[in-house]
Structures are given as structure tokens and as C-alpha cells.
Fold Amino acid transporter transmembrane domain-containing protein.
Amino acid sequence: MEVNGDGTGSSTRPLKVIDEENIAVEIPETAHQISSDSWFQVGFVLTTGINSAYVLGYSGTIMVPLGWIPGVLGLIIATAISLYANSLIAKLHEFGGRRHIRYRDLAGFIYGRKAYSLTWGLQYVNLFMINTGYIILAGSALKAVYALFSDDHVMKLPYFIALSGFVCALFAMSIPHLSALRLWLGVSTVFSLMYIVVAFVLAVKDGIEAPARDYSIPGTTQSKIFTTIGASANLVFAFNTGMLPEIQATIKQPVVSNMMKSLYFQFTAGVLPMYAVTFIGYWAYGSSTSTYLLSSVNGPVWVKALANIAAFLQTVIALHIFASPMYEYLDTRFGITGSPFSIRNLSFRVGVRGGYLTINTLVAALLPFLGDFMSLTGAISTFPLTFILANHMYMKAKKNKLTSLQKLWHWLNVYFFGLMSIAAAVSALRLIAVDSKTYHVFADL
């Protein structure tokens, strides 16, 4: 793809990639800005995804079901394999003499039309569920602030979810594309540090003052098996976006070496704070760790309120990252180019992005126990996109350059993560069946 000086594609005609059956796959140019960001900025985009307020739940969703040794080892191993899988995708960004700025473009180029459509479907289901989950998370943070100052229970979680969706929509209308986040990435980092530091310090204080904790894995033998599988799925979800080519599209040349710098930045500067708050939360509260750490800690009301507000605001920024592939598709599909704040373009964002986030918000309020469904979509989309497809695409693209041992390694990854995907899907379905007996639509959790 040729790129103009402003970072946008130079051609208005779609590229065509021909698969083995000579069926054309049309690859449209993008209406968004590309090839303009430093590796440092892209590193902060990736780090924002890792250190979203989801990190406050990993003590409960990862450490409690796994325990100390498997939990710690699992996080370390998940870090390594996630960095490896992401590096495989990053190295294919300029494969075949052209730049692949979308995940589905790369899959379509390597496999053909069917893989193009399947990858697109898996990715957008995954991102839709992540976006919806972020709105639930933001609503939960707002409700936590409300609960600190009032015990009348007049305001329910669905109300806060609706408010969160509205704020997310306002932000989406103001930021035209992923590269335009710039300063907001720094703001997001400040907010992340605020709630991580507060949770860490208050958990340390509670842990020092608390009696001996119970670190045993709760549940029956059968339930432990399923929760262990679910926790393993959460491990890989913690490190992966499912949209690496879309993020890499924003980076300056040379795109591969710069993206590798961004990935190393993500898995050093970004991972350490996540480790710290996850481990300290489990150490302080053991098996009673809440799925949202700030609701467990004891401390000054104003400090906890500040941390929850920071979690809410950072979630609004993080959601925009995971919604950007949908925004890019819509803007490209309807030819939204030129000044992002022209009347036409601004009106389009208000109507279309506002409508998309309205659907997200409605689903979030209707099913606030969406985490169960996210485990299912993670099993059927995050595993295939991040691990199975990454290894198989790399093997297919580099087949003439790989030794027999290297090919065997990639096949082992494909089969292992294929089995993990099936097991995680079964575990998620069981969890949905169990929780559906407890929860109801528009629940106030």
C-alpha cells in the first residue's frame, strides 16, 4: 500500500488479493491515518490495553482458581507465549510485498476469501464483547463510588452502565481515529497508575494487619477442574488484543522493527504493574479476594473514590482502542475522509458511533454478568486469532524457510491451543448454565 504524506492511503480503488481458487478478495484502502506514530506511542496503546481496570480483577479470576504456584507460573508462561505469538503476527505485517493493516487482510492474503470472512467475524465478535465488557466495568466503577457515599441503593448498576455508555460515546465522537489518542494515552497511564498504586498500597496495609489467610482453591473437585480451565483462558486474555495488525498499521516505518520495540515495551513496562497488583491482592485476601480489588480494600473513602473515578475514566479511553477497528471499517465503508470535524464527518460519528455504542450499552445493562459470555467468546475467538492462527499463518508464510523442527514446534502450538480453545469453550458454557440460575437481566450486581 502506498501512503501519502498525511498517512492515509493514496488509492481510492480497492486492492485485490487472489486466493488459490482464483476468487477475488477486495481489500479497501483505509479512511484512517496510518504510518504516523512512533513505536513509543504504539507501545503505550498496547500497555493501555494490558493495564486497563480489568487488572483489578485478576487476583480473583486468575489467582484464586489456580493458587500460588500455578497462578504465578501461569502468568509468567502466558507473558512469554503471548509475546511470542504477537511477534509472529508482527513479522507478517509486510508479507508478500504489501502491508496488511487489518487482521482479516492478512488472513485473506494467506488463505483466501473464506478465511478472510471467518477471521473478520471472529475478530468483531471478540471486540464487541470486549467493548461491552468495558462499559460494564466503567459502570461498576461508578457504582462503587456511589456506594461509598450512599447506602440507599436507589441507583442501580444498569443506570451507571447507561451513564458510562453515554460518556464513551462522547469520547468516541471526539477522537476520529486511533492515532489521534496521543495525549490521551499519557492521561490513561496516569489513571492506570492511580488505581494500581491505591489498590497495591491499601492491599499491603490490609495484608499486614490481617490474620492468616486461606489460600486453598475453593469448590468441589469437578468445579475446580472447570474453574482452572477458565482461569487459563483468562491468562491469555490478559495479554492479547486480537487486533495487533490494526495497531501496527499506525506505526512509522520500519514497521516490523518498530512494532517489536513496542511489544517489548508492552511486556516490560506494562506487565510489571499488572503482576504487582495481581499478586499483592491475592496475598492480602487469599481465596476471599473480590473479582474487583478496589471493593475489597480498606482505606479512606476519598482515596477509594478517587481510584474508582480513575478506573472509570481510564476505561473510557481503553474502550476506544478496542472499538477502533469497527470505527475504521465504518468510516472506510462510507468514505468518511477529510477534516474529522467537518459537519458531515462529525454528524456521521455522532450517529453511527453513537448507535454502535448504544447497542453495546444495551447489551451491557441487559447482561451485566457478561463475563461468562466473554469467557466463551475468548475461547472461540481469542485463542484462534492470537495463537492458532498466528502459528499456522507464520508456518504457511515461511514454509520454505523453516526447518522440520521449527514446523513441528508450530504444529504443536496449533494443536495445543486448539485443545485449549475447546476446553475453555466447554468450561464457559458450564459457567453460563450455572450463573443463569442465579442472575437475571438488568441485574444490580
